[in-house]
Design a protein that fits this description.
single chain, alpha/beta, Rossmann fold, Aminopeptidase, seven-stranded mixed beta sheet, six-stranded mixed beta sheet
């Protein structure tokens, strides 16, 4: 027999307060034990106990709860105190009487072996948006399966599925109980943030009481053993920030700090001589890194905000953000925006620019005060090459995977590989030339064509990866320091 089947409702009344927009629930619960066995009778006689104490034990006694369809309800208490009983009663009432939908996190059944990008959303765009919202916005994570995620990442994935469900109530028993307490606070902060953004309600029960600040519940229920219970109501407002961010500071960094987190960034780990590297640290732990570089000679969108300048003037007045990376553990609590916002004035230049692919899905730079100027479509040269690759059987969404590209190249015959070489020669782009002539501003077309003809499959694979990167839509962001 399951534990909750030992309980029965002694009294249950529900009314709706239109003025408050809340359901008022008056509940009384008591244990309902099965028929006493011979051993139970023997123990009762030996210790002078009445069987009434075996048959009935009050868990809730005329408890009044006021819960609305957008409340964040946090239920805490010791194991066995009745948290799950209350949660199940509320969930049952939601389904039967409140006429609104609910989703229980325990009922979410992930597809264990499919890439995450294929298991949420109706389209790739929707999937990227959902996964980015919950902090699974690492390009590598998009291609991982649920089974390859950590416990914290699995929780985040399930929050994405709850958002996708459109259910009004999100129900979570033993909430974050298996997570380390730092990760639990991050998950709690994200849960309430997304629920409030979506206008949803949360019913979360757990033995842990350390999530109060990060959940910032509008209804806090603490259940002790027996009938003792406390219920507190607060304004239904989002938590201003995750409690962990209060322990973080910006410090000067080095390329050594960048290398520690480089593997968590979707682009190349190599960076040119940086102008400035700044870190976000928590008690000595590296949580994030931002890299400022000297600007390149040209950049899409720059002419929309700045007049033409000589390189010496550009180097003096303009910095470019080339890398922003946050440790996966600390994602989705606003650290990307914090890194940008608190370092823009430390760059030492009047202007700062940032071209970024991920900014299309996660507008952290705009939240930090940068202005979105333009969105750059893929260059026509990359589009033409991608079309040739598609005709040869390549999945153009996987061009960023050098391993995938090389394996596909190895299946082609000489004539098909020649078509790819011809496409790169006809549709030359400065980024392709830069691969062969890294120390020259522009390579000569004749020399570039010769390099393409003699390139082995490994070099062609890398060049196709560059093409895949060019196929991504970039956002150009700009910041001007106040004088």
């Amino acid at each position: 027999m399951r534990r909750h089947e030992f309980f029965r409702i002694r009294q249950y009344r529900r009314t709706y307060d239109k003025q408050q927009g809340k359901f008022i629930i008056d509940i009384a619960y008591e244990t309902a034990a099965p028929e006493p066995t011979e051993r139970v009778v023997n123990v009762a006689e030996a210790f002078g106990l009445g069987l009434d104490q075996w048959e009935k034990f009050v868990v809730y006694d005329n408890v009044e709860l006021k819960i609305g369809p957008t409340d964040i309800v946090y239920i805490t208490g010791d194991s066995g105190s009745g948290k799950s009983v209350l949660l199940k009663a509320l969930e049952k009432d939601i389904k039967q009487d409140m006429q609104v939908t609910s989703i229980n996190v325990a009922d979410i059944k992930p597809e264990p072996n499919k890439p995450l990008i294929e298991t949420v959303g109706k389209t790739t765009e929707e999937a990227l948006e959902l996964l980015s919202k919950v902090g699974l916005n690492d390009a590598f994570l998009f291609l991982r399966s649920y089974e390859q995620l950590s416990d914290g990442q699995k929780y985040r994935y399930k929050i994405a599925k709850m958002i996708e469900s459109q259910a009004q109530f999100w129900v979570m028993d033993e909430f974050a109980a298996t997570l380390d307490r730092d990760t639990a606070k991050i998950v709690a902060y994200n849960l309430q943030k997304h629920a409030r953004q979506q206008g949803k309600a949360v019913l979360a029960a757990t033995t842990h009481t350390d999530l109060l600040e990060d959940l910032n519940p509008s209804v806090y229920i603490h259940k002790r053993f027996g009938k003792e219970i406390t219920v507190n109501y607060s304004p239904n407002e989002p938590a201003k920030e995750c409690s962990l961010t209060k322990e973080m500071q910006i410090t000067e960094g080095t390329t050594k700090d960048w290398r520690k987190l480089a593997s968590f960034h979707y682009r190349s780990h190599k960076i040119a001589a940086p102008r400035k590297i700044l870190c976000l640290k928590r008690n000595g732990e590296l949580c994030g890194v931002i890299v400022y570089n000297y600007p390149p000679p040209t950049c899409f969108g720059r002419r929309l905000v700045l007049p033409k300048m000589q390189m010496t003037e550009l180097n003096k007045k303009l910095s470019i953000i080339t890398r922003v990376v946050v440790h996966p553990k600390y994602r989705t609590i606003g650290l990307g925006a914090k890194l940008v916002k608190e370092t823009l004035h430390l760059a030492g230049t009047e202007y700062v620019e940032m071209p970024a692919v991920m900014a299309k899905y996660n507008p952290f730079a705009e939240k930090a005060g940068m202005q979105k100027i333009a969105q750059q479509p893929p260059p026509r040269e990359a589009v033409k090459i991608a079309e040739t690759l598609r005709q040869l059987g390549f999945n153009t969404q996987l061009l960023g995977s050098e391993k995938y590209v090389l394996s596909k190249l190895q299946t082609l015959n000489d004539k098909e590989v020649a078509k790819i070489r011809e496409a790169f020669i006809k549709s030359s782009h400065a980024r392709f030339m830069k691969y062969f002539f890294p120390h020259q501003l522009f390579g000569k077309r004749e020399a570039y064509a010769k390099e393409i003809e003699k390139a082995n499959l490994e070099r062609l694979a890398h060049l196709i990866k560059v093409c895949g990167f060019l196929m991504q839509t970039k956002v150009y962001l700009f910041f001007k320091a106040r004088q």
